[in-house]
Structures are given as structure tokens and as C-alpha cells.
Amino acid sequence: MTAGGRPQETLVSEQPLDYAACVRRSEAVAWRLDDVMPRGTRLDFTRPFMPEELARTSRIKLLDEAEQLRLNQITGNAYLNLFAFVEEFIIAMVVSLAQSELSRDHDAIRALSRFADEEVKHQQLFTRFREAFDRDFGHPCAVLSSAADVSRIVLAKRPLAVLLLTLHLELLTQRHYVAAVKDDRTLDPFFCSLLHAHWLEESQHARIDTLQMSKLAEGMSRASIEAAMHDYLAILEAFDGLLAEQARMDVDSIAMATGRTFDDAERAQVEAGQHSAYRHTFIVLGMTHPPFVATLRTLAPHESDTVIAAASRYS
Ligand SMILES: [Fe+2]
Ligand SMILES: [Fe+2]
């Protein structure tokens, strides 16, 4: 199916799971960068990019409707950058997993190689979007730029924790697209089609994550799995710091885009609103997504409740 085809909304857990099936599904949904976003594409700045359920800009009452729309678009740009940002460590992890399968499972090598190729393509897509945004938005908007450093820090954690975080992020795209984006007719159709394309391939990645996780967890002691769960929570805490940093950058961006000067209280209000929206979008929705919760319960029946309960820190 091409990115413009009808979305397939089946939950990850309902699909047959083996590497050969992952390759077949990947081939069926694959899309080309130039088809999803031809060079020279112009963005439509008259419409919101992000669904209100995720961007939550209408909660920032000191901004009027036009200003909230601008902030929504700033958030959409930062949202795509955040995905390109985390894809940096995912690519490094998947390339190393593919290498460890060399001379062994051909289906696994193909599934993992396609996975890595698709993530690099997503980064290129988001970079192309961000270039169009920077060209036409009218004001510079800062985004996080230390992906390689963060990737090294994440990859130093236990492999099971890195896989858990990867699954969390990839399942998120399902929750964002299917639950919040797909039926929202107020959004810019181009931005929706871009999120649709991303979600189509991310759904396949989530299946591969699950396969890799079962392989990795086999034979691990309860203590090791518990330690990996703690690593996962520690990475989320560090990631939350990055979300706060993005929220601070957004305040400067919206001030510049609207020509407003915020006093300290107003600045704090916009910053808190943005941080809370990013936390909801990137942390809470991932930790509480039913397929992710089901994976946690299978992996660590005794510790899963503690991990899931940690989501309340970010609500
Ligand atoms: Fe991706
Ligand atoms: Fe992915």
C-alpha cells in the first residue's frame, strides 16, 4: 500500500509475528520520499498542523486564536524534529542488531536492514519538512540539535531498556495518527499525509521491536529485567529534560512570530503549557498505550505496574 492508501488500523499485537512477515508488510506499505514530499513543497500556514489533543495550544489563554495557530505550527515543526532526534539512536541500535544476525537469519537481516533504511528516510523527510518550514514560516524557530550526543547516552543503557524505549516511541505514532490525526478535518492535509506515511512504516518497526525483545529477554533473570525497566525510566526522565528545553525555545519562537513581549509570568505560562503538551504527547501516551502496557506485563509481570504508574509523574 502507498502512503496515500487506506490506513490499516490493526493493533500490533493482532498481526502474525515473524521476520519474513515483517519484510512482506514493509514491502507492502513502503513509500518514496519524493512521493510523500516532493522537493519545493509549500506548507499551508493557514491551518493547524497538530491535532489539539496533542498540541493543546488552546489551553494557553493569554494567546489569541491566531497566536495559538502559530504556536500549533511551531509545535508541529518541533514534533517532527523530536522524532528525527530519537531516530538517531534507533538507527544505531538497529544497524548493530542487523550486524549481529549476519550469517544467521536472512529474514531477520532483511527486516532489520529495511527498518534502518526507513528510519534514515524518515529523518530525511523531517529535515525536508523543516527546511520548508524555516523557509516560509517567516521567523526562525529553534529546535533541539544534540541528537548524536543523546544517542550515545541512550545506547550506553541496557539493550532491553533501549528496545523498550524504541517500542514506546514507535507505538506512539500509532496512537497519535489513528486516535488524534486521521479523522481531524481541521488539520493541514499535507501534514496529515506525512504523519500517515510515518505511521505506516513505524507500525512495522514496532513488530520487529517485539520480536527482538522476546529474543533478548529469553533467559534474562528477573533482576536484570527489573534493572532494564529502571534504565527505561531513567532515559524517560532525561528525555523530559529535553522536552522542557524545547518548550523554552518555543516561547522565544512564538514571541518572535507574534511580535509580543511576555513578562515573566506570561513566559512561564506558555513554557509550562508547551512542556505539559510535549510530556503528554511523547511520554504519557507511550507509557499508557495498551499494546505497550501488554508488552510490559508479559516481560515483567511483577514490575510492570510500578513502571506504568510512573506515567503519572508526567501528567
Ligand atoms: Fe521513524
Ligand atoms: Fe521506527
Helix content: over 70%
Shape category? globular
Question: Ligands in the structure?
Answer: fe (ii) ion
Total domain modules: 1
Beta-strand portion reads under 5%
Describe this structure in words.
This protein has 315 residues and is mainly alpha-helical. It has a single domain, classed as Ribonucleotide Reductase, subunit A (Orthogonal Bundle), CATH 1.10.620. Helices cover 71% and strands 0% of the residues. It has twelve helices and no strands. The N terminus is likely disordered. Bound molecules: fe (ii) ion (FE2) (2 copies). The site of one fe (ii) ion has 6 residues, from helix 4, helix 5 and helix 8. One fe (ii) ion (FE2) binds next to helix 4, helix 5 and helix 8.
Give descriptors for this structure.
single chain, about 325 residues, mainly alpha, Ribonucleotide Reductase, subunit A, 12 helices, binds fe (ii) ion
